[in-house]
Amino acid sequence: MPEGDTVWRACKRLNQALAGQELARTDFRIPALATTDLSGRTMIEVVARGKHILMRISGGLTLHSHFRMDGSWHLYRPGERWHGGPDHQIRAVLETAPWTAIGYRLPVLELVATDDEDSVVGHLGPDLLSPAFDRSVAIANVGSVPERTISEALLDQRNLAGIGNFYRIEVCFLLGLHPWRPVADVDVAAAVDLSRKLLKLNVRNGTQVSTGVDRPGQRSWVFERGGKPCRRCGTTIRTGELGEPTRQRITYWCPACQPQTRRPQTRQPQTRRPEAGQPEA
């Protein structure tokens, strides 16, 4: 699933291309918006809120979308071939004079009143990439359920918005936290601060890196490295599933660098992630 830094960069590109432009044609290919025509309106701005995309349009409307696992927005010049996927995966077409924005495989696409944006993003905690990020609220949110695992608390977008599986896993490794460690036994402020630091660094870098080495195969400490030796100590990295049965996420950790007395059930490493539900977004 694209995380906050990826969504922020997508919104920045969309905003640079579309803000201030009149919509010459719109085409929504989902039943709920099939008869909606926004042509003649102006795209005011495109902003990110955690992992959510808000396209604010004149007349007091906001087009809300979310990538979930594999959605995306692509920009094309007039006459350029669309190559983000087959036509049946297109969910939205927003055409202006200089650019056409195509939304592919968007599982969330809806039109709401701009004054009512809280109905779709009001549940989110402080946005890690926002200049107005409220650190104290984020820390309080993450620490509010002491018996919860740190992994679940960091992934819960109601606590703080923008962090996903990559950052949660790498933050736990860098702080020496077993992924099942209860929040009560964690320096929550350190976890929040490191999460924000990594997201902000990678917004500028354009890739997700936690090791400081921006080369293929070397960007993460433990993420997607199940069965391989830990870069720090050489111990074999383990994998497991964390969360409620309908929202399980695969996790990776080094049992030597991230120890915990009570060991959770583990499984053999695998290269593909299991299909599972999503955490609260």
From TrEMBL:
It is an enzyme of class 4 (lyase). InterPro entries: FPG_cat, FPG_N, H2TH_FPG, Nei2_N, Ribosomal_uS13-like_H2TH, Znf_DNA_glyclase/AP_lyase. CDD domains: AcNei2_N. It holds the Pfam family H2TH. Transmembrane segments: none annotated. Residues 221-259 form the FPG-type domain. One of its GO terms (biological process) is base-excision repair. It comes from the Bacteria. Residues 259-281 are annotated as: Disordered. Residues 2-75 form the Formamidopyrimidine-DNA glycosylase catalytic domain. The keyword ATP-binding does not apply. Keywords: DNA damage, DNA repair, DNA-binding, Endonuclease, Glycosidase, Hydrolase, Lyase, Metal-binding, Multifunctional enzyme, Nuclease, Zinc, Zinc-finger. Residues 259-271 have a biased composition (Low complexity). Its EC number is 4.2.99.18. GO terms for molecular function: class I DNA-(apurinic or apyrimidinic site) endonuclease activity; damaged DNA binding; oxidized pyrimidine nucleobase lesion DNA N-glycosylase activity; zinc ion binding. Belongs to the FPG family. PANTHER family: ENDONUCLEASE 8. This is DNA-(apurinic or apyrimidinic site) lyase.
